[in-house]
């Protein structure tokens, strides 16, 4: 698929989602196809003799950034719509079953977990009848004493290690070699000059401040 065709398809899909305000059908392989296309274009970039100095290298960077940002925005819009559907269901409002059927399997799993989490939290806080999130192994909320590190004398399961802090991502172009580091998302990054990579925004900002990376900010 040509870059212009793929990007136009993704952008039109995003516009339709934003205009309708409803969850729409997308092809099951959309994200897989986009990832494969991005990886292919990265390979094309690295195959260039002088990617940093060539016009083709600049075009490939722009193409990779445009596709990446559009796919991420599609994910964000769909996630917000799914959160809204979950809240509507928990409030007892009518939820269109046809709209729910448009979720991808991974989105459906997220939807069901959100509903369960909201229900458990409401039972705990409003009715005082359950410990939130205790059923699926997620963090158990204790008293103020437990939060200060003083456990109460009861058999409450120990809370698991905190999950990595999540943050927005930024597409950057590495301009000089950098030592490997742990990102805000918990991943270890091993980068070298010329790499094009998506980093947690906080990490990307630090690298850009030290002139190690260039943040590729592209208009959609």
What characteristics describe this protein?
220 residues, mainly alpha, 3-stranded antiparallel β-sheet, two-stranded antiparallel ribbon, globular
Could you name the ranges where pLDDT drops below 50 across 5 or more consecutive residues?
Answer: 136-167
Name the structural class: mainly alpha
Please work out how many helical segments DSSP would assign: 7
Mean pLDDT: 77
Helix and strand pattern:
HHHHHHEEEEHE
Question: What is the 3D form?
Answer: globular
Give the end-to-end Cα distance, rounded to a whole number of Å. Answer: 19 Å
Largest sheet, in brief, is: 3 strands, antiparallel
**Count of distinct strands:** 5
Helix content: 40-55%
Strand order of the largest sheet: 4-1-5
Report the C-alpha radius of gyration, rounded. Answer: 22 Å
Beta-strand portion reads: 5-15%
Secondary structure elements and their pairing?
Elements: H1 3-20, H2 30-47, H3 55-90, H4 97-100, H5 105-127, H6 144-147, E1 169-174, E2 181-182, E3 188-189, E4 196-200, H7 201-209, E5 213-215
Antiparallel strand pairs: 1-4, 1-5, 2-3
Please tell me about this protein's structure:
The chain has 220 residues and is mainly α. It has seven helices and five strands. A hairpin with a 5-residue loop joins strand 2 (181-182) and strand 3 (188-189). It starts with a helix and ends in a 5-residue tail after the last strand. Residues 136-167 have low confidence and may be disordered.
